[in-house]
Amino acid sequence: MSTASANFNNITNYMRECRLCPRNCGVNRSMDKTGFCSQTDKIRAARAALHYWEEPVLSGSQGSGAVFFSGCNLKCVFCQNYHIAIGECGKEITVDRLSDIFLELQDKGAHNINLVTGAPYIPHIKEALIIAKNNGLTLPILYNSSGYESVDALKMLDGLIDIYLPDMKYFSSELSALYSHAPNYFEYASAAIAEMVRQVGSPVIEAVDDAVDYNNEPLMLMKKGVIVRHLLLPGQTKDSKKILRYLFETYGNHIYISIMNQYTPLPQVEKIPELNRQVTADEYDRVVNFAIKLGIENAFIQNGETAKESFIPAFNYEGI
Predict the structure, then answer these.
(1) Read out DSSP for 59-73?
(2) What pTM was estimated for this model as a whole?
């Protein structure tokens, strides 16, 4: 049996009774059945390109090499990548093609390989990374996640991922049930983040020789570590403060926290009045000031007007 065949069979084993995420669907994706993520055993992706809108230590000056996978195991009602999350768009590719995409992004000058919402495809991603690394991939690998992950599935990636970029969306089970159909979100996200920190340890951010950023300052890039993102939702500053307190009391400054105000009310929330507006400057300032009072030092904050659809890339199959 060839190595390729053995690897394919390994992926098929996971797909026959899929339990890769907390939904624990148990469906046979290898028979073209789908669970909550809306995906079969085939990889589908909607874009692979240099992405400039991540945190500065990830996007740098040349961009993060972002691969946007189709489907999602969370499907928040306010999702900012709605069309790919619901599986509405996506082009089918093989594991070999995915490994080639990683190498092509490296050739384009990406600072890292950014795997966006890869939970439905963890076995495929593992095999593609191994192939690409054997063929010359040297960039840091970034796993960009909703946070709603299975610890057992994440362990499959141990040793392959350098940077984890999970969300911590909710502290409240009521909110996570209402907006993401996942009352157990915090339970799983907190366990997933603990596993991510275990795998990659404390942050390592290094200056790039003879390179400067847009402010003509030395270019600093993350080589390993965890950045936990929290996107403020309108009217939910109390929940945001609980998340920040939990993260700081648990990890101190051994992780970075990205406090985001770029929530964009898209058409699917028009009938949800409390979500059909932007976060106010006062709401954001209150949460940032709370973080400062807690003593959080390793943080990213957003300045000015950032809630706009230009942060959402075109899912036009570029690079796929």
Answers:
(1) HTTT-EEEEEES--S
(2) 0.94
The Cβ of residue 208 has, within 10 Å, a number of other Cβ atoms equal to 15
C-alpha to C-alpha distance for 70 and 115, rounded to whole angstroms: 11
Helix axes 122-134, 3-16, angle to 10 degrees: 160
Count of CB atoms within 10 A of residue 24's CB? Answer: 12
Q: What Cα–Cα distance (Å) separates residue 64 from each residue in 56, 221, 313, 318? A: 10, 11, 13, 15
d(CA 61, CA 59): 6
153-174 exposure pattern, b = at least 16 Cβ within 10 A, e = fewer: bbeebeeebbbbbbbbbbbbee
Longest dimension (CA), the chain: 62
Q: Rounded to an integer, what distance in angstroms lies between the CA atom of residue 93 and that of residue 151? A: 26
pLDDT in tens, 287-314: 999 999 999 999 999 986 654 544 678 8
